[in-house]
Design goal:
The model is unreliable at 111-115 (pLDDT under 50). Helices cover 82% and strands 0% of the residues. The chain is globular and about 65 Å long. The chain has helices at residues 2-22, 27-49, 54-86, 90-112, 116-132, 138-153, 157-175, 180-193, 199-216, 222-237, 241-259, 264-277. The protein has 2 domains: 2-112, no CATH class; 116-277, Tetratricopeptide repeat domain (Serine Threonine Protein Phosphatase 5, Tetratricopeptide repeat, Alpha Horseshoe), CATH 1.25.40. It has 283 residues and is mainly alpha-helical.
Length: 283
């Protein structure tokens, strides 16, 4: 993911750098401004894509973090060069340098803890809604889903899985397996656990929810196709390329019709198919 994030950062940063250089700004200042604006644009993109395309949102968020860190480094470098050229007194220079380094430390800390304030706010909001609105109220469940995504973005996968499992168990017990929220949190759990080494457990979960998604939401529904794609991915990891190829071919065809060949999920499925077809031996 870091490679994609770096590429995304360059795609945002280089045009801005060219514009600032063209209007006559010094190279260092142009680079810092380009990195700062690229970070703001990528951070905004991450927020906008959070609900619909969480994977791309995560990549954009990582790229934004890198942009802000580079901005901090650039500011420290420019300040240091300025001290040297202006010939400031050692005491004042040391004090200003200390302030710049503190700024960089704050930027790096915030980048490393992206989503921390959101997690705290969402946790407090969820606790309040569970008491006042009820544990299965639509608003409560929506906040739960937002908190799960925030935990995932922050790298707290185990906490995200635990909250999803807790919520799913509560919905299943109260409303049954075909409830819309039960399907939604079951599909989310498949996504969260897809990279787990416990292949059989994840496959059983995907094979349990997929028929219900097809029956309730339809064969071409986005959530249905997402779970089917993860199931194909797990089949590849379990050494079942023939079954994976059949399933992923169907998923790819449906995604092409529903979302278009250039959509993120369509291209991800195409990549899995290319990986399968590149393997030696009969499929």
């Amino acid at each position: 993911m870091l490679g994609f994030a770096a590429l995304l950062f360059l795609l945002f940063c280089m045009p801005l750098l060219a514009i600032f250089a063209a209007i006559g700004l010094p190279a260092g200042v142009a680079a810092v401004l380009a990195a700062l604006l690229a970070g703001l644009l990528l951070g905004g993109a991450a927020l906008l894509l959070d609900e619909r395309l969480p994977t791309l949102a995560s990549v954009a968020g990582t790229a934004a973090e890198g942009a802000f860190v580079l901005t901090g480094v650039g500011v420290v470098a420019i300040v240091g060069i300025g001290y040297h050229r202006l010939g400031l007194t050692p005491g004042f220079s040391a004090l200003a340098a200390l302030g710049s380094l503190a700024f960089l430390l704050i930027v790096v800390t915030l980048a490393g803890k992206r989503g921390g304030p959101d997690r705290r706010r969402l946790s407090e909001q969820l606790a309040w809604e569970r008491v006042h609105d009820g544990e299965l109220h639509p608003t409560t469940l929506l906040t739960t889903q937002k908190l799960i995504h925030a935990l995932r973005r922050a790298g707290e996968g185990n906490e995200a899985i635990a909250l999803t499992e807790e919520t799913l168990a509560r919905v299943l017990h109260t409303r049954g397996p075909d409830d819309e929220d039960a399907l939604r949190f079951a599909a989310l759990l498949v996504t969260l656990k897809a990279d787990s080494p416990a292949y059989r457990e994840v496959r059983a979960l995907a094979e349990d929810v997929l028929p219900r998604l097809r029956r309730v939401r339809g064969e071409d529904d986005r959530m249905t196709l997402q779970v089917a794609r993860w199931l194909g991915f797990i089949m590849i990891r379990m050494g079942e390329p023939a079954d994976a190829l059949r399933l992923l071919t169907d998923v790819h065809d449906r995604l092409c019709r529903a979302q278009g060949p250039r959509a993120e999920e369509t291209r991800a499925t195409r990549a899995l198919l290319d990986q399968l077809q590149a393997q030696p031996g009969p499929q």
